[in-house]
């Protein structure tokens, strides 16, 4: 289960970064 949680955390981080980039560019 720790593996799944780690993957989810990475995905959330990547999505948060992409959203921050979009907000900064927009």
Write the layout of secondary structure elements.
Blueprint: H1 2-25
Radius of gyration based on Cα positions = 11 Å
Uncertain residue segments? none
The major β-sheet equals: none
**How many DSSP E strands?**
0
Strand content: under 5%
Output the structural class.
Answer: mainly alpha
Mean pLDDT over all positions? 92
What spatial form do the alpha-carbon principal axes imply?
rod-shaped
**What kind of assembly state do the chains in view correspond to?**
single chain
Distance between the termini: 37 Å
Helical residues, percent: over 70%
Order of helices and strands: H
Number of alpha- plus pi-helical segments: 1
Question: Can you tell me about this structure?
Answer:
This protein has 26 residues and is mainly α. Helices cover 92% and strands 0% of the residues. The chain has one helix at 2-25. It is rod-shaped, with a radius of gyration of 11 Å. It starts with a helix and ends with a helix. The model has no long low-confidence stretch (mean pLDDT 92).
